[in-house]
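Worked example 4.2. Below are the chains of a multi-component assembly; read each line carefully before continuing.
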Amino acid sequence: MAEGFDIDHLAKLARLSLTAEEKALYSSQLNQILGHFEALAQADLPALSDDARVVDEAALRSDEPGPVLGSAAVTRLAPASRDGQISVPRVVDDES
Amino acid sequence: MSTPPSDWEVVIGLEVHVQLHTRAKVFASSPWGFGQEPNEQVDPVVLGLPGTLPVVNREAVEKSILFGLVVGASVPEHCSWDRKNYFYPDNPKNYQLTQKDFPVVVGGQVEIELPGASRNVMGEHKFIRIHHAHLEEDVGKLSHAGSGSLVDYNRAGVPLLEIVTEPDLRSSAEAEAFLRSLVAMITQAGVADCDMEKGQLRCDCNVSIRRRGTEKLGTRTETKNLNSISSVRDTVIYETARQIRELEAGRSITQETRGWNAELVRGYVLRDKEDAHDYRYFPDPDIPTLKISRETVTRLSALVPENLYDRQRRYIANLGLPYTAASVLVNDRALAEWFELAVAAHPANPSGIANLVANDLLRDLAASATAPVSLESCLIKPAQLAGLVKLTDEGVISKQQAKEVFTEMFTSGRDAAAIVDAKGLRQNSDTGELEKIVQEVIADPAVAKSIAEYRAGNEKAINALKGPIMKRTQGKANPVLIDQLLRKFLG
Amino acid sequence: MGEVLHTLSAGELGRRLAAGTLTSRALCEALITRFKALNETVGAFTHLDQADVLAQADASDARRKAGQGRGPLEGIPVAIKDNIAVKGQPLTCSSKMLAPLVSPYDSHVAERLRAAGAILYGRLNMDEFAMGSSTENSAIRKTFNPWDLARIPGGSSGGSAAALAAGLVPLSLGSDTGGSIRQPASHCGVVGLKPTYGLISRFGLVAFASSLDQIGPMARSIEDCELLLNALASADARDMTCFGPADRAFAPSGDAKKLRIGIPKGFLGKGVAPEVAAAVNAAVAFYRAQGCAISEVELPSSDLAVPTYYVVATAEASSNLGRYDGVRYGHRSASAGTPVEMMTASRSEGFGPEVKRRILLGTFVLSAGYADAYYVRALRARAKIRGEYLAALAGVDMLLTPTVPTPAFKVGEKASDPLQLYLEDIFTIPANLAGLPALSVPCGKSGHLPVGFHLVGAPLSEAKLLAAGRLFEAAHGFAHQQAAL
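Applying the procedure described above to all three chains together yields the following structure tokens:
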């Protein structure tokens, strides 16, 4: 089941950079854990049903505007800001 | 320009993102609106602070259902939300709440009208199928400043309905007609304002081409984030030409995501399929599946306005309106309803009313000295306009005078009859008095020649007698009556 | 006076405050003195704003004096796990990632505690983002088991349990995703309740695995646990998964001696230490002697619980923790570069090894090509496990097992073996998967180390679980126990 496990791809998806040692360690640990998950692959399981988690419209929120933090509070939380906005390194169009 | 060379057929599917008309955001209570200072419309939930949770806005759900009803979709028993995971600085939680498997709107169709041969001629009608529409959250806005970028989360969490069509569109003209029709239906139902200047409507445009007569779809490209109808039209034209050029040069089309530069009227590659995101969708554990009650659906059904083209057909077939007037009226629900109130007050002449509404009223509303006047604040009420048309129909005033009275009504809001009386415009319809004047004029030797000609069969010669009659009545004679009297006395 | 105050129950403290023989200020001063003496040794708290605590105590005393006391928790300190938001206080989740964060808002439970007049008393250490069973994954400090300072207190709510066992505070809040309240409660000899999923609002609880997380009360006695539960449980429109009925009272109800208790077949065989088995068997014998009906029940899919849990929990966690990227709050890497590089560096610097491991695992089980084999199958297994538990609980009132197979292990002993640590949760995980209430009750010692047993009931059967706990507690000497420090 764990075939095709690609630690570099996962790290990229998860926005983590790993050292060579970390890659080796996590690869072996994840493979071990995934091996333990084999029971899931073998089990006879029912079809998916979601009925335990259904709410009716009473759970919805009314369209009443509530309080905001204000840009001063927002920028106070941020590691870097400028003119009421949060600063980040320059974003190249659709960098992925 | 908009149609590809005949041996190629273009196939277009659109994903239209519409900001729904709500006061608060879709999963948070923060207000939203255009033109606020950056990050002033942000609360802990919008900012994705640790520990915050989404709660779905009822109005956003109901506006989505209403859209579904407008396009004749089925409203599912349940809908649910999923997380679309991707990292981007404008995406506060680094996942977007959207609906992948169980959207709020499934199916439906939008009727479109293509341009006719001329302005007076109705074009072809088609139906474009809606695959589904899902309710999701908008992301923040990035702007670039020097070596860095700045993030404003005011837009983050604004309710977005993403409307996904089937690949039913076959030309840039159809894409344009679809968007116009869609916008009219959405705004007429009050689902959204679709103000493109404010970014309230944005499109992703999927384009592929195939040999005409073949079934198999070609490789498609997706051009993202088009923020006007003209950009969609231009993208289709550009992308169709580009793909034809590629294929005819023996190259193949790459499945890719593209961007659009509206200023240069040019597309560009954003990323190819190899870079496709792995969004790792899964059901959002914070939002349980929502059961949509049939009572809600029934209640919202009552809010669905008459379909724009059903209305147009009714105006033409039942009210006898010319296409031109009908098409102008139906594009604006308030105007059409105003028109219908006037018709109700004077059912005998819908065309006369439509003529004044579609021409004079719209012109004066738009040209008002200060700012354009809305229909709501307009001083003329529908019954008053009907009264004016009625006076004209009865011959109390001429059509020419009606224009003058209309202008006065528009500025004063007074009834037509009062204006006619005050201005002394009422036509003389006193048969006895007019008979006397007509006989006097006939007896005048100066018109003997015209009388002779008329009697010899020249119909138009009779008009030469009308001038002197009008002169004697200071123009107030009812022209219809004069014509009748002249013919009677001249035998 | 200060010497004994820390040994008293919240109920007794409340009675003295009400009688006017004690002020909240005196109580808080005594606890602060004890904090200063012991926190370095135990490491339960990561933060305590003493001036703020005394200001809250003075306000409470003033309310009481004005006849505006807010109920049984008025003036009583409640310590809070550092993953539950309190406005103006740190919200670090014991992570370097959130070290700079001061919460600008109150969680629902913080609001409830304020409304009840309680003193919001400091921040408790935990495994980073609640991922762990020993509190060794805290990036801030180590927490030690007050009964043996060479051992772990359990986790992830290790600070919450250790603070109680060390007499640093009478009540604490924990959170429980797979056993994070009950396991440390067992290891530290205190009472811990994971309520029915949805009974207590999660608004303001930093998410680890949203469909499993619940906030719960921890105390040194069942009575105190009830007291805190009653203050916390209420409906909250800010959490769509919360259905908690307004101000439901969870006083024990019915005749505890008539309870039907199920013992899952084969549970005691699974790596359970002999002393733990002995203590739990003694508890079973006690209930039988009291007249309770004891029967064996079948839970055939038990073996699926751990893998199911780790797939579901890590999948949700990988998404929940995506927001920590150094853009809006928290740690941002000093290394420049593109936004992707900045986010990647911030996350790599900000998260500890266990958090990274679980993010990677969760990312994998959701990724294209694997989601059906792992995530979707885990959801189906979860439904099966839930079905089996509900079926079993249709025939009995509750299920009884050990809370943890073994007593607290030594600091560092299992740190290198994540899978071994994951098995610590084998008895506690199913209640989270099935959304059921579960209670850990101290029931003896393995040597000098506390042991607890674990009760799981049907949804909203908290009152029954507490009644069973009271019956046992009244006949044994484990209530109000504290380690000698």
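Take a moment to check your reading of the output against the notes. The interface with chain C takes residues 44, 47-56, 83, 85, 87-89, 92-95, 149, 151, 153, 278, 280-282, 285-288 of chain B (CB under 8 Å). The radius of gyration of chain B is 31 Å.
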